[in-house]
Write a structure and sequence with these properties.
The complex is a heterodimer of chains A (112) and B (111). With 112 residues, chain A is mostly beta strands. In chain A, 0% of the residues lie in helices and 50% in strands. In chain A, strands 2, 4, 5, 6, 9, 10 and 11 form a seven-stranded mixed β-sheet that branches. In chain A, strands 1-3-8-7 form a four-stranded antiparallel β-sheet, with no helix packed on it. Chain A is globular and about 35 Å long. Classes of the chains: A mainly beta (112), B mainly beta (111). At the A-B interface, strand 5 and strand 10 of A face strand 4, strand 5, strand 9 and strand 10 of B.
């Protein structure tokens, strides 16, 4: 199993550009999550999904969108990038709501 | 949002020393989790706690789920250089199972 994979590893965007961060898991997990981690801080939940076709907002959803068309994939979309979205983004998955979450390696995004 | 207060923010210790860090909150949690993050990597789960009062060990690591369900601690005994990293507490909130993370404890171990 590859676990949770994320692409790209790094990206630099200009203000106002859009992009999609990709996340795939091959563990057949129902739950998938997107977090952001700002320097010196813990992770904050952006969006999560309890299964294909179902998504919900986390703690900091503004400026982001998600979709979950398959069990394996959970892309995160930034429509109009802003400097405040400069962060490291982590995708995670788990079998159930309180089961262990397995994290991807992260995407480091800089918005200039 | 509900805050997890993790302390200390950083620790500089000598190899062989024991380490203790903790998390507290004003909210009740269903689970307490301790993760370690190394540079350029995602967090990796060290210990998961599911019941109030639970005390669990994983090698040199020991963690406890506080009786009030509002706190947890992690102890590392006989630290070694590879223990270096950032340790995060996390937990699932009682009312909605959202997961919250502490701000992390940055551990440096001097050989």
């Amino acid at each position: 199993n590859a676990g949770v994979t994320q692409t790209p590893k790094f990206r630099i965007l200009k203000i106002g550009q859009s992009m999609t961060l990709q996340c795939t898991q091959d563990m057949n997990h129902n739950y998938m999550y997107w977090y952001r981690q700002d320097p010196g801080m813990g992770l904050k939940l952006i969006y999560y999904s309890v299964g294909a076709g179902i998504t919900d907002k986390g703690e900091v959803p503004n400026g982001y969108n998600v979709s979950r068309s398959t069990t394996e994939d959970f892309p995160l979309r930034l429509e109009l990038a802003a400097p405040s979205q400069t962060s490291v983004y982590f995708c995670a998955s788990s079998y159930g709501p309180t089961d262990t979450q397995y994290f991807g390696p992260g995407t480091r995004l800089t918005v200039l | 949002g509900q805050q997890l207060n993790q302390s200390p923010q950083s620790m500089f210790i000598q190899e062989g020393e024991d380490v203790s860090m903790n998390c507290t909150s004003s909210s009740i949690f269903n689970t307490w989790l301790w993760y370690k993050q190394e540079p350029g990597e995602g967090p990796v789960l060290l210990i998961a706690l599911y019941k109030a009062g639970e005390l669990t060990s994983n090698g040199r690591l020991t963690a406890q789920f506080g009786i009030t369900r509002k706190d947890s601690f992690l102890n590392i005994s006989a630290s070694i250089p590879s223990d270096v990293g950032i340790y995060f507490c996390a937990g699932h909130l009682y009312n909605n199972n959202d997961m919250r993370f502490g701000a992390g404890t940055r551990l440096t171990v001097k050989p």
